[in-house]
């Protein structure tokens, strides 16, 4: 039966080539636009560490004075002060914890006569690599003891290793950072989680290439490296960041299960309360959010992208309405044909199925062309001046999704015309002929 | 033209008509809002800056390793830069217009005020007003003897010696108007931080503030302070010269700076025009996308109208023939279809306006956009009426070409 409907549908579509082309084109444009933006949205709102994200938590505290303008927003400050970060770190209440800040670092190659250049660097503590599962090509990270002794060690990324040492094992070689020598102890394999969750509010990029240099926080500060972002909230000396009323560190904790998380949360509450009693805080507020919740709440996905997605789906909606109208007009013109088929014994479900097959066919054709439009759309996005531009590629699941969306859209568009077709009473149609 | 017979016919095609009206309504709603969004982007891209954009070049340098003679080195650099032929004046500011980062303060007109009146940016740097080419409309520029070093400012703040701080400042007219509406701002005082008073000695016509996120708070809320910086504290050197000299001056400046200290890295350089162009790159790309979507939408809707109208013409072939045989002219038939389309489009536009308003409300809540001015509604309506008439013309002409003899043929 299906083959017969397919045959009927093909004949019907062929009879009116221009109209068929119009329907397919309109649907394809709608599908193309929606799939382009949906691909981008999914990419940008993706999970940077799918296996581990549920175990990673972001810590926030509130050292701000009550009357500070920011406090009126009722949000918690995004970052921690050095004092709080170190207090939490040394309390050892989680299996792994890390404080993170970003810095623009001046690197001077010691091997060649190349000029110094700037690179994005991360200042962090020992657990960073293990906690975020950064893979090592050579060597490894540093230890908590290195943090304490301000050891002049550095971990570099694969791209930088290729640039400076031609990809050879550079462990043990030296790298000049801000005119101080650091010993390379590890080389990372390519690592750039998207979004760049750990650099949020720290002044790094949210998407794109990974960072090049990782230095122990204390050693970096000893070498006079400054964070890119610092938010000051009070009076006092801002020159020494370690004691200044300035927030500049992101803080992460790895907590293996729910009970560990709730234990850590109550530890934070107690800590904030204790700081209020000490007079350092004015309000005992704290927060512990999972990685994905943190990314969501901070609207990492640019507004532009969300707006484009909304726009593209409204466009698809209009394309569907357009297809419904055209299919309906077409089916009403075929009232006589339907009358004859009904008189010859075709049931209402049979007529309905016949028209749905026709709509589905348009959907599949629309999906195929829509894929071309989506590829074109993504190509356009790759040429945009955004930091996420290079990520815009169609993957297999989105490829399948395109056809699913197209088929569903066309079937929705087909329901009304098919229903109208199957309720046609055969007798009057036959009479006038 | 009598529209009753048209309405009567349309009633027989209720469902198809509803769909067409719905499609036009959605299109109208989205096109109105999209044009509004495009307008917003264009407004932002063309925002006036108040500075001599075409006469400025900048060099940002990084100079790392805590040297203690920062002030002397900055003075030496600027002296060298001023000697470049064609350079009229040089400054070392803490921030530049069209930067993404910015330095800001809360401003109060009364030290005991709980909520600040506004937040404004703070520009520091010697000769900044002259270099930027900012126009002073009242009062005077900052005097050389008023300037202090930023390092000393930090020390004074840390020791709470607020009275030693420089007291003069320049503000923009926008900011003055917001702080003291309708009054003469010269000599007035405002308060920053823990109630430190500062006196307005001059008013600038306009000076744009840096920072994309800050612009929505008032793009013209800027102040200029008599504070000198070292290169580490500053953003980079800005040189003013004639527009045609910019390339040569930039090249000469790079050479001079390299000669003064070969160990520094140039992190950014270019003309202010390029800097502005880069700053608005994302807005331009987004405006492009929105224009594309708008056109695609209108094309799809036009194609839908063409398709439906063609069907109706084919369906009514016979009745058109009858009308022609009974004496209707080609013009009558043409106008019939045009009027029919006009009626349908008008209904769609009516519904579309309501939807457009709804979408605008949604955008206001979720994207912090301003309310859409009423002007955009008639613009959207006009576009759809035009599209409708253009789309229906082809099928209508075909209908008008139906010969009266059709009436006598049996189908």
Poorly predicted regions of chain B are: none
User: What form of chain B results from the Cα inertia axes?
Assistant: elongated
Order of helices and strands of chain B: HHEHEEEHEEHEHEEHEEEHEHHHHH
| DSSP, total strands of chain B | 13
Total of domains of chain A: 2
Q: Which segments of chain A are poorly predicted (pLDDT under 50) over 5 or more consecutive residues?
A: none
Organism (chain A): Dyella acidiphila
Membrane topology (chain A): Multi-pass membrane protein
Domain MacB-like periplasmic core (chain A): 20-224
Transmembrane segments (chain A): 21-44, 310-329, 350-374, 394-416
How would you concisely characterize the structure shown here?
The complex is a heterodimer of chains A (433) and B (411). With 433 residues, chain A is an alpha+beta fold.
What does this structure look like?
The complex is a heterodimer of chains A (433) and B (411). Chain A is α+β, with helices and mostly antiparallel strands. Chain A folds into two domains: 175 residues, no CATH class; 245 residues, no CATH class. Chain A is 49% helix and 15% strand. In chain A, helix 2 packs antiparallel against helix 10 and helix 11 packs across helix 14. Chain B has 13 helices and 13 strands. Chain B has a six-stranded mixed β-barrel with strand order 3-4-10-7-9-8. Chain B has a four-stranded antiparallel sheet with strand order 2-12-1-13. The chains are: A alpha+beta (433), B alpha+beta (411). At the A-B interface, helix 2 and helix 10 of A face helix 2, helix 5 and helix 10 of B.
Could you give the topology of this structure?
The complex is a heterodimer of chains A (433) and B (411).
Chain A: H1 2-15, H2 17-44, E1 56-61, H3 82-91, E2 96-108, E3 117-124, H4 128-131, E4 136-139, H5 144-149, E5 153-156, H6 158-165, E6 174-177, E7 180-188, E8 213-216, H7 217-222, E9 231-232, E10 246-247, E11 250-254, H8 258-278, E12 286-290, H9 291-297, H10 303-333, H11 335-343, H12 348-382, H13 396-422, H14 426-432
Parallel strand pairs in A: 3-8, 5-7
Antiparallel strand pairs in A: 1-11, 1-12, 2-3, 2-6, 2-11, 4-7, 5-8, 6-7, 9-10
Chain B: H1 4-11, H2 14-45, E1 56-62, H3 70-82, E2 89-91, E3 104-108, E4 118-124, H4 128-132, E5 136-139, E6 148-149, H5 150-158, E7 168-172, H6 173-179, E8 189-192, E9 196-204, H7 212-215, E10 222-225, E11 227-228, E12 237-240, H8 246-260, E13 265-271, H9 272-279, H10 281-315, H11 317-325, H12 330-367, H13 376-400
Parallel strand pairs in B: 4-10, 6-11, 7-9
Antiparallel strand pairs in B: 1-12, 1-13, 2-12, 3-4, 3-8, 5-9, 7-10, 8-9
